Amino acid sequence: MCDRARMDIRVIRSGTVQVRHGLLAVRTMAALGGEIYGRMATLSRDQRDEHSIIDIVDQFNRVRSVADGEREYLQGVIEFYQARTETKMTIAAERLAVIAAVTLPITALSSVLGMNLIVSDHTRWPHLIAVLVIMVVMSGTLLGWAKRQGWF
């Protein structure tokens, strides 16, 4: 499910980036066309030609402003999906940190005491049971604390 969602987000992001680049091209063409026709309006001596050229310039300016609006909208969509992905990654990192926080003290305790308590012929059962109880209490305490923090 996670890989599929990640692929869906990549496809959506790729599509929005392509649309954004297309809009940038349309905006550039509209701006350049508007500039060219705007210069032509200043050269024209005929009143009728001047009105149609001014109308074309206005249309190019409208296309440019629409392309700008769509580009800004798509940039917002891209930022939304990036924020959503970053949030999921942050949650995953927090969970891994909790797992490390819960297992690290137990691992340290078992690595030091495990070599000295469990010996083939001379296992010290009272000490082993005490250490196991301490490990269970540490785990329970750390898990309870993590739950109170809202990490689980």
Describe the structure.
4% of the residues are buried. It is built from 3 helices and no strands. The mean pLDDT is 76. It has one domain. Helices cover 90% and strands 0% of the residues. By secondary structure, it is mainly α. The radius of gyration is 33 Å and the shape is rod-shaped.
SSE map:
Layout: H1 2-43, H2 47-117, H3 125-148
N-to-C span = 21 Å
Helix/strand order, N-terminal first: HHH
Which percent band covers the strand fraction?
Answer: under 5%
Number of domains: 1
Radius of gyration: 33 Å
How is the main sheet built? none
Précis, in short:
InterPro entries: CorA_TM1_TM2 (IPR045863), MgTranspt_CorA/ZnTranspt_ZntB (IPR002523). With 152 residues, the chain is mostly helical.
Identify the notable features of this structure and list them briefly.
single chain, 152 residues, mainly alpha, 3 helices, 0% strand, rod-shaped
